Structure formats: structure tokens, C-alpha cells
Task: inverse folding
């Protein structure tokens, strides 16, 4: 070994303890996200009907963001958390059929922590793109288990996607299962800095909760009622609160695991929800619920704990939002963010640490379905242009436009400027325009909205499995989705050779692909010949054997809401291999021969790039 090599070894030995100490001093970060829980669903915020001691402990042991705002629905909030930018900037303009995908040019909070040497993982609902490189494994997460779509139709023993893109049948209640994976992740990284994201699936419908939790609520009188009490379904409220108590138990398990490994002191824990409540139930008298840009649709709990640095019991009164999480958490952890796009969010550290730093005035904008509202520290201009004093009138009952016309005009002008700024760059990527626009026809609008014109990427060696679910395809002819909520639907009513289903693909790697289809088929109808084609390549196969399982009828606590599919056990049919060229085009599945009354129901087509 020469002198230079010996010096390098010596230097590495001297630096190793210092680097190890620096890594140990960096805080772990755990982000817990509820799905469709309202601000008013937690004891800390005044709900007397539910017990949430573990979630509440994050608030009492840390900092409460008193006016914390997210988006009206799921995917936009997740995009804003991940990027620190308003969701339209990243191409997120829906919750299904591909419109939930976060543009590939956006850089995420997970990428920042991963680049800083953190172990990273996400377990639960993703909802910002399914196929690589939209997949969470491509957006900064080392590990993943969950469902990438917006909502999932199976809460017990659910099939979930693992880190390698494979569907695996799990055992137990979906929130418990994903929490178990989070606990295992902590067990494997007690000495490594880690960034752990646990986006829970509840209390999003379907209304399904373990029996032990439902027994606590099924006969309980409601001591608090919704802002619009005549709109409230008492059993839905009871089930939502039962789901919240299960969620709280799982949060407690994570907090206990941190304590077990003596990580509590130096772990940042943040808890919030992705939008307002998904049913009319008590929410502090605020106007609106999920889907609304009024206060009740977008105000979320915001609880942050870091015993090593943050003061316990501190309440931040300044308005804040999901867009602030990336700059705040990276700042607290002392790591640089990645990417060079300007952020819309602010670093909240001065407010959290009570540093006394001057805090400039700010406005936070909320948009959904062409509706935009804007919140100042004291006022809200709603999507109809009505101005409310949120200090004197937090329920938005009496507009004050005539009393404060100058402020109303100023905020209306700001909304229009924001629209021009934020929406001007949103839209399909350049490659997806033109041909893609011609392929993405209105067929998809019949069930859950038009399919996004951006093509689905296929063919990455680092992630060879590409799943093409029904929600991302277009039903043509008589084919339709099993429900108006596409996310957990499947294609049905395939009865004619004129019927087909189409996915617009962008094949990045030419090569051989194994083709499989998750299907069901009435036993007497087995035997149809089907063809899958892309450009001038095609593969054919037989639909056999017949496989006609019953719909699940024992999973739901309450009847499934209209528009949500009843699920069933799908079987995998392998139809061979096909050589796909590189390029853009429609992948079409159709039938050549139909000996029975129908072909099959299709949940997904899976393409696997072979070595």
C-alpha cells in the first residue's frame, strides 16, 4: 500500500466516528397522514365522542399548528406535502384515471432525505402515480407497501403492492398491516437516521372497521352533530370515529416503538389529514367538508413533536399549510432540499422554535375543480367571491363584501393572478400532446372522468413490472367500469368483438414482455380468444379456466356507498410473451372469438420486462 493509500485509510478511520456521530445527531422524521379525517375528528380539537390519546399526545407534547390548511381532496394534498409547491404546478389535477400523477420534473421531500443519507420508507396510500417512475420507489422511498391508487376496495386481508411492484395478499386490517411494516422498518433502523411516511387509509370509505371498534360506537348517541345536521348519517359518523380510534391505536404503536428504541427525544413526528371530513359530522361548526374550498373542507389538524428542540404545549396561530412541510422538515433536520424549482411553502421553523423572527404577511390559496379560495390571517375570500371575517365569523355565515369592498377586490385580484401563475404551466407533458390527445377520447368520461392524456411509461430495467389497472385504461364499445369511482374498479360488460379496453403507453425499453391479466369469468363463458396488441405486435391467448368467485359481502361494516365497487377475488391469467418496440401508442385488449355470453371481467393487465 503506497503512502497516499495509507493516508486515505487513516483519514477514513479518523472521520468515521465523527460522521457516525453527525448521523446520530440528525433527527429521525415520522410523517403520519390520515385519509379523509376532519379537523374535528380528534379529542385535542374538541371532539368529546372519540378517544384519541396517542394522536393528542403529539399535540400536547409538541406544537399545534392552529390554522393548518391542506387541499379539498387527497392527491393534491399529498403532492403539496411532497414538493412544497401548489399541486397544479406538478400536474396533479384529479384523483384518478392518471390525473393524480405528480410530474416527473418535481423533486420530493423523500428524495431530499434520501440524498442526505436517510433510510426512507412509505407504507400505505400513495396516490401520486402508480407506474415507474411515478411510483413511490422512484420518488425517494427505499421501501414501500400499500396501494398507489386513491382508494382501495378491500380493507381486510387486502392485496397490496410491495417494494418490487408485486401484488401480495396480506392478513389483517389494512391500517394494522401497514403499521406493522412501519414498526418493522423502525426495528431495522434504530441507529440510522430515517424518514418514515405512514399515509393511513382511513377513515376513507368503504365503511369498514374491525368489529371490536364498531362495538364501541354502533349504539352510541351522538353528543355533537354536523354543521348541517340534516345532512349527517349517524352510522357513518359512528363508523368514521371507530376508524379514527383504530388509527389512534396504530399511532400509539409507532410512538411506543420509538420509545422502545429510545428514539423519542430525537424524532420529529408530524400528524395531519389530507382534506376535510368525508361525511357530514361534527367539525367545529366550520362550513364545508371534503371537496369544498371553504374552511371545513381544507382545515386539518397539524401536530408536531420533537422533544429535543420544540417547546411542548406551544400553539402557532399564524396560518400554515401542507406546502410548508418540505421546507420546514428539511430545515429542522438541517439538510438541503433537492431540485431548483421555487417553493410556494415557507420554513415554519422560526414559528415552531419561538425565535421571535418577524413573520411577513402571507396568503394561502386553495383550489379544486376550478374553484379557488384564498385565506389571509384574518379573512377568507371563498370560491364565489364572498368575503368573510374568519375571526368574528369562523363559520362563514355572513359575507362582508359591502363592508370591506377594497379588501374583497384586492383578494379577488390576487386569486386571478394566482390562477394565471399556477395553472398556466399545468397540463400534459409535451411528448403526451398531439398523438396522446387523439388517443385519450371521451370514452373514459362515462365512468369517473376522462383518462389523463399523459402516456403510461413502461419498460424500466430497475423496475420491470408495470401494472395497468382498469382505472388507468379507457373502456370502449360496451365495456364499462364496475363503478363510477374508478380507483378500485374493474372492467365489466365485455360481450362483443367490437368491445375493447385501451391504455396509452410510452414504451421506454424495446424487448420481450410477459403478459398477464387479473380476471374473473363465468364458468360457462370460458374459452374466449383474446388479443393484446401494441403497434404491429400482438399476443393471443385463451380465457380459461372459468373463474367466477362471489362478491365480497362480509367486509363492510356499513353498506358500501353508491358508486364504489363490490370487490372479489381475481385470478391471474398468463397469456404468453410479446415483443414490444420502443415508442408511444395504444395498448389494446380485444376479443377475437367469444363462444359464450361474455369474455371476462378485467382488473388489471401486467407487463413484465424480461431479462
Result:
Amino acid at each position: 500500500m503506497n503512502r497516499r493509500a495509507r493516508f486515505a485509510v487513516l483519514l477514513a478511520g479518523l472521520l468515521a466516528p465523527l460522521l457516525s456521530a453527525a448521523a446520530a445527531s440528525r433527527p429521525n422524521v415520522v410523517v403520519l397522514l390520515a385519509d379523509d379525517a376532519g379537523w374535528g375528528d380528534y379529542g385535542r380539537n374538541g371532539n368529546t365522542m372519540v378517544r384519541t390519546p396517542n394522536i393528542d399526545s403529539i399535540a400536547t407534547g409538541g406544537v399545534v399548528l392552529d390554522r393548518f390548511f391542506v387541499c379539498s381532496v387527497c392527491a393534491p394534498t399529498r403532492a403539496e406535502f411532497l414538493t412544497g409547491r401548489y399541486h397544479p404546478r406538478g400536474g396533479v389535477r384529479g384523483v384518478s384515471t392518471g390525473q393524480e400523477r405528480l410530474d416527473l420534473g418535481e423533486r420530493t421531500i423523500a428524495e431530499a432525505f434520501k440524498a442526505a443519507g436517510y433510510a426512507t420508507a412509505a407504507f400505505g396510500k400513495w396516490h401520486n402515480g402508480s407506474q415507474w417512475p411515478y411510483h413511490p420507489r422512484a420518488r425517494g422511498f427505499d421501501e414501500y407497501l400499500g396501494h398507489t391508487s386513491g382508494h382501495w376496495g378491500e380493507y381486510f386481508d387486502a392485496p397490496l403492492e410491495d417494494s418490487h411492484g408485486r401484488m401480495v395478499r396480506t392478513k389483517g386490517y389494512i391500517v394494522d398491516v401497514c403499521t406493522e411494516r412501519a414498526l418493522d422498518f423502525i426495528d431495522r433502523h434504530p441507529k440510522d437516521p430515517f424518514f418514515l411516511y405512514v399515509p393511513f387509509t382511513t377513515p376513507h370509505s368503504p365503511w369498514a372497521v374491525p368489529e371490536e371498534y364498531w362495538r364501541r360506537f354502533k349504539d352510541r348517541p351522538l353528543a355533537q352533530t354536523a354543521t348541517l345536521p340534516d345532512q349527517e348519517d349517524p352510522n357513518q359518523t359512528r363508523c368514521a370515529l371507530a376508524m379514527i380510534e383504530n388509527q389512534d391505536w396504530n399511532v400509539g404503536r409507532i410512538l411506543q416503538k420509538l420509545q422502545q428504541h429510545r428514539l423519542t427525544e430525537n424524532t420529529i413526528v408530524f400528524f395531519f389529514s389530507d382534506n376535510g371530513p368525508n361525511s357530514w359530522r361534527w367539525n367545529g361548526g366550520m362550513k364545508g367538508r371534503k371537496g369544498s374550498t371553504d374552511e371545513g373542507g381544507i382545515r386539518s389538524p397539524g401536530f408536531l413533536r420533537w422533544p429535543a428542540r420544540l417547546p411542548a404545549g406551544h400553539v402557532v396561530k399564524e396560518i400554515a399549510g401542507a406546502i410548508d412541510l418540505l421546507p420546514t422538515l428539511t430545515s429542522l433536520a438541517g439538510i438541503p432540499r433537492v431540485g431548483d424549482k421555487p417553493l410556494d411553502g415557507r420554513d415554519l421553523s422560526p414559528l415552531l422554535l419561538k425565535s421571535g423572527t418577524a413573520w411577513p404577511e402571507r396568503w394561502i390559496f386553495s383550489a379544486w375543480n376550478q374553484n379557488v379560495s384564498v385565506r389571509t390571517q384574518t379573512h377568507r375570500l371563498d370560491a364565489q367571491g364572498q368575503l368573510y371575517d374568519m375571526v368574528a365569523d369562523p363559520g362563514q355565515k355572513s359575507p362582508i363584501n359591502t363592508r370591506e369592498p377594497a379588501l374583497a377586490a384586492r383578494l379577488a385580484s390576487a386569486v386571478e393572478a394566482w390562477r394565471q401563475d399556477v395553472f398556466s404551466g399545468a397540463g400534459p407533458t409535451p411528448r403526451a400532446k398531439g398523438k396522446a390527445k387523439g388517443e385519450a377520447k371521451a370514452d373514459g368520461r362515462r365512468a369517473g372522468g376522462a383518462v389523463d392524456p399523459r402516456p403510461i411509461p413502461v419498460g424500466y430495467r430497475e423496475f420491470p413490472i408495470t401494472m395497468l389497472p382498469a382505472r388507468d385504461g379507457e373502456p370502449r364499445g360496451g365495456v364499462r367500469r364496475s363503478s363510477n369511482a374508478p380507483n378500485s374498479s374493474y372492467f365489466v360488460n365485455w360481450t362483443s368483438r367490437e368491445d375493447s379496453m385501451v391504455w396509452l403507453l410510452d414504451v421506454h425499453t424495446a424487448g420481450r414482455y410477459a403478459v398477464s391479466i387479473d380476471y374473473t369469468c363465468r364458468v360457462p363463458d370460458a374459452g374466449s380468444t383474446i388479443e393484446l396488441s401494441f403497434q404491429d405486435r400482438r399476443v393471443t391467448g385463451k380465457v380459461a379456466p372459468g373463474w367466477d368467485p362471489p362478491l365480497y359481502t362480509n367486509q363492510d361494516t356499513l353498506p358500501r356507498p353508491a358508486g364504489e365497487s363490490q370487490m372479489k377475488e381475481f385470478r391471474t391469467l398468463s397469456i404468453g410473451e410479446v415483443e414490444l418496440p420502443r415508442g408511444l401508442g395504444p395498448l389494446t385488449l380485444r376479443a377475437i372469438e367469444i363462444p359464450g355470453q361474455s369474455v371476462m371481467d378485467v382488473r388489471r393487465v401486467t407487463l413484465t420486462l424480461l431479462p
User: Anything to note?
Assistant: Residues 234-260 form the longest helix (27 residues).
